[in-house]
Design a protein that fits this description.
about 600 residues, alpha/beta, Rossmann fold, GMP Synthetase, Chain A, domain 3, 3 domains, five-stranded parallel beta sheet, five-stranded antiparallel beta sheet
Length: about 600
């Protein structure tokens, strides 16, 4: 089954069926039920895809119709996604955290004709939006959905009934024969930064381009074997949709679905994944946990960590280490690094970080402990991966690596990163004005500022829209300051503010452990956070220093958004809610 490059598949379902033909009864999708991991084979998944796609057409859906998908990560999520596409329809994934208002906007904007929802809890906010919709009349419940009364204009269907048949895959193959790479596969809605969420039109070829290019990284830099993924980021986000769902299909891999964020660490040890798609916030949390554990152990453990970090720094900067350090390096590999590796299952090839900037200090920390971390870069508008660090090119923590295979990247005169290739979206759904702003002459204008280093790796320096210009005209990169703040063990999230102001102020979210430790005493929490801010300010220039801060309300605590893939999502929401209070800091 192994191959160094993927075939030129016409669509995502064709790629899936090719893997079904190769893998057959081999396990594909895993979920924990009643305390035990249970699998769905490639062959059984294909049967369900065939049955559900036929049922969607029997409901009256036609090729090109949109179907909303509202579910936590689980095997049925990917089966539903493939079935929607297999019917010639378009998947509209949405966040499980969406409100009724969010669902109403997306249903109205996309014109979705049907929705698939996983459980009663998610249906509670979704069904009222369906009743407001003039286009959507069919609701499919993966689990039993109870409304308590008949709802006019809405038809409810059960997953089990719709997936009962479908043993013959030939009708499925015939249905998808006319679906090409340029055809629309999904509408993935952006966070709404700067306005209402926009539907990104990702075609089959865009995602297939990403899958083939990412497979090139694995095959040529690590070796393509029987890969195992652990899925925990929201599948409705472009990063996980491509990287954690369709990329594993391209590899013929197995996907385990994590039980929850709380059980993620235990699931990693159980599943022993070979590849993980992650966000920087996870690494920051894990780094703090490791540091606290070693701090409690003290003595030898602390000394070993310090030596590991020192040797890791030397290897990173010079590419090698002195002969005198090699015995200690070997000892660390047999002790500390081996212990850390076991915590990650013992067979991780690479942990790919994306969705937000990774602080180089965090990346170097894990590399020093023997974990290979690849920082990637992308946007929903590019399906979403544009570049990724590769061991063969030399991993630099302050870069996001070279462009992917068959991906053109150039730097505009003002420093903006431009991207061209099959991975680029066909535009925003029903939004020609915004499409014309970001797509020009075939190039995607990313809004990010950067340059190539001497090895052809992309170094991102700023976000055009996010630059803070103070009242003296000095430019400040908020991401740098925010990244340094969130490295402090007391701070979970940070947003700095100060456009056209004399100095920076900040909105801070304390770590939940700190809040518990101090029994929610706001004065005590503020005092601890002030010390953390003081430590950061000591390493910042005058224009970057944070002079004052406020605490976020409970609605924005880390419990709700600790793994949100993009800081930009939080920036828009938090700024709108806190702007007056942040402005008030300047009057003190």
């Amino acid at each position: 089954m192994k191959r160094t490059q993927l075939e030129h598949f016409p669509n995502l379902v064709a790629m899936f069926l090719a893997r079904v033909g190769e893998r057959g009864d081999a396990p594909f999708l895993w979920a924990k039920r009643s305390g035990r991991w249970e699998s769905v084979s490639y062959k059984e998944a294909a049967r369900q895809v065939a049955a559900l796609s036929a049922s969607l057409l029997q409901m009256g859906l036609k090729p090109g119709d949109r179907v909303m998908l509202v579910s936590e990560n689980r095997p049925e999520w990917l089966i539903a996604d493939l079935a929607i596409m297999a019917a010639g329809c378009v998947t509209v994934p949405t966040y499980t955290t969406n409100t009724t208002r969010d669902h109403t906007h997306i249903l109205g904007n996309s014109g979705a004709r049907a929705v698939i929802v996983s459980n009663q809890k998610l249906a509670k906010t979704l069904v009222p939006a369906v009743l407001f919709s003039s286009d959507c009349h069919d609701v499919i419940g993966i689990e039993d959905i109870r409304t308590g009364q008949a709802l006019e204009g809405a038809r409810f269907h059960q997953w089990d009934e719709l997936t009962r048949n479908g043993h013959d895959l030939e009708p499925l193959r015939q249905r998808i024969a006319g679906v090409g790479r340029d055809d629309l596969a999904c509408l993935i809605y952006t966070s709404g930064t700067g306005g209402a969420p926009r539907g990104v039109r990702q075609h089959h070829g865009a995602i297939l381009h990403n899958v083939a290019a990412c497979t090139d990284v694995i095959a040529n830099d690590f070796g393509w074997d029987d890969e195992i993924f652990l899925s925990f980021l929201p599948a409705s986000h472009a990063y996980e949709h491509t990287g954690g769902q369709h990329f594993p299909i391209g590899l013929g891999a197995q996907i385990y679905y994590a039980e929850s964020l709380e059980k993620l660490a235990a699931n990693i040890e159980e599943v022993r994944p070979t590849i993980m798609v992650v966000v920087p916030r996870l690494f920051e949390m894990l780094r703090q946990r490791i540091l606290k554990t070693i701090e409690k152990s003290g003595g030898l453990s602390q000394k070993l960590l310090n030596r590991a970090l020192a040797i890791g720094q030397e290897r990173y900067e010079k590419g090698t280490i002195p002969l005198i350090d090699k015995p200690m390096d070997l000892f660390l590999s047999l002790t500390l690094r081996k212990k850390v590796a076991r915590k990650f299952g013992g067979r991780i090839k690479a942990m790919v970080s994306g969705g937000a900037p990774l602080n180089p200090e965090v990346g170097l920390f894990f590399h020093s402990l023997g974990l290979t971390m690849l920082q990637g870069y992308g946007q929903t508008e590019a399906a979403p991966v544009i570049s990724c660090n590769r061991p063969k090119n030399g991993i630099r923590m302050d870069t996001v690596g070279p462009p992917l295979l068959n991906t053109e990247v150039r730097i505009a005169e003002d420093g903006e990163i431009l991207v061209r290739g099959e991975l680029v979206m066909h535009g925003y759904w029903n939004n020609d004005e915004e499409t014309g702003r970001v797509l020009q002459d075939g190039w995607l204008l990313t809004g990010d500022v950067g340059h190539f280093d001497d090895a052809g790796r992309i170094r991102i320096t700023d976000r055009k829209k996010d630059l803070i210009v103070n009242d003296k005209g000095d430019n400040v990169s908020p991401q740098r300051v925010e990244g340094m703040l969130t490295l402090q063990p007391e701070i979970a999230q940070a947003m700095v503010y100060g456009d056209r102001k004399p100095h920076l102020v900040a909105l801070l979210v304390p770590e939940p452990e700190l809040v518990s430790e101090l029994k929610r005493d706001e004065a005590a929490i503020r005092a601890r956070l002030q010390k953390a801010v003081d430590r950061v300010n000591a390493d910042l220039s005058v224009i970057e220093k944070v002079r004052r801060f406020i605490l976020a309300d409970e609605a924005f605590t880390v419990d709700n958004e600790q793994l949100t893939p993009s800081m930009k999502i939080r920036r828009h929401v938090i700024k709108a809610a806190y702007e007056d209070r942040l402005d008030a800091l300047y009057g003190r």
